[in-house]
Every structure is written in C-alpha cells, then in structure tokens.
Specification:
Blueprint lengths: L8 H11 L4 H11 L10 H8 L6 H44 L5 H16 L10 H6 L2 H7 L2 H8 L5 H13 L4
C-alpha cells in the first residue's frame, strides 16, 4: 500500500475497499464494523461519498493512491507475463525435442503421430470441408439455420447495419431454407 501518513487507518481501509470496487454503502458498513470503537458517530454512505467526490477531503489522496496501485498492478502483470513467456518457451522447446525423439521410435504408430504433430504445428492443421446440399439446408430447422450464420453477421443484423434488401434475404433464408 502506498505511504499515506496523514490519513487514519479507516481512511486507508476505505481506499482499499473503493479500489476493489465496493459500493459506498458497503464501505460504510465495513468501516462501522472494523472502525475505531471510540468513535461515537457511525459512517454513512453519504459521508463516504462526500470523502471521494471531486471537492472531498480524500479525493486527491485517493487519486494518487489509485495511480500508484495501478502502476504496481501494471508492473506485477508485466513480471508475470515475462515469467509466463519464459516458461512457455522452455516447455515449447522441450515438447519439440520430445516429438523429434519420438520420430526415432521403433513403433510406426508413434513415429506417424509425432510426424503428424510436427507437420500440424509447422504447416497448420488441414481444414475440414463439409458439403451440405440445398435439400439438407432446407430440411434444417429455423433455429439450426440461424445458428449457421456467423455471430458477427447476426450481430450486424440485430443492429440494422445491413441494407433492407440484404436483411430480408438473410431472414427469408433462415425462415424458408432457400434464397429469394
């Protein structure tokens, strides 16, 4: 946590709770449970809101806290990403070495599987083509035809981003199974 010397412990707790996304009501309730027992007045949702509003007593201090915590989070994530990349790279090398070693197996099945895996990684897996006749498409249910339409296209249809003619043709195909 950043060094905030002039603030009380309950202010620091309020910072943490707000940064974690708690509501003002939730912050007030938590402060009342964990706050100083010597304090006669209870924290209210409104008092917590007032602390953080633009002219509030904690506004500027919280902005600095938030920036520092965001920076800490960014640096931590960068370290985690670098470590993850290093681990992936090491394991990738090991996996490739193992595949090459498997190509020297006495079993033809193991050799074939290793070769296939290496080729799939280098060249990419072969694409599988599915042929469907117009009759088979017509026999599908309305819902199944709708699900054949790519998600992005369905989204554009729902947002009226296609011309009226295109939209009518697509919806007719979904309903009837054939193009107008």
């Amino acid at each position: 946590m950043p060094r905030i010397k002039h603030l009380s412990e309950y202010h620091k707790l309020a910072f943490e709770l707000k940064y974690k996304g708690n509501s003002y009501q939730s912050i007030a309730e938590t402060l009342n449970k964990k706050g100083p027992k010597s304090r006669n007045a209870k924290f209210t949702e409104q008092s917590v809101k007032d602390w953080f509003k633009e002219a509030g007593t904690l506004h500027e201090a919280y902005r600095m806290y938030e920036e520092e915590m965001d920076q800490i989070h960014t640096e931590t994530m960068a370290v985690v990403r670098r470590a993850g990349a290093r681990i992936r790279e090491q394991n990738f090398r090991l996996a490739n070495e193992m595949l090459v070693a498997l190509m020297g197996s006495s079993s033809d099945g193991v050799k074939l599987a290793a070769i296939k895996e290496i080729l799939d990684r280098v060249e990419g897996k072969p694409k599988e083509t599915i042929h469907v006749s117009e009759q088979e498409l017509a026999e599908l249910s309305h819902e199944d035809r709708w699900n054949l339409i790519p998600y992005e296209m369905r989204l554009r249809l729902s947002r009226d981003q296609y011309s009226k003619e295109v939209k009518e043709k697509v919806l007719h195909w979904v309903a009837e199974g054939k193009i107008k």
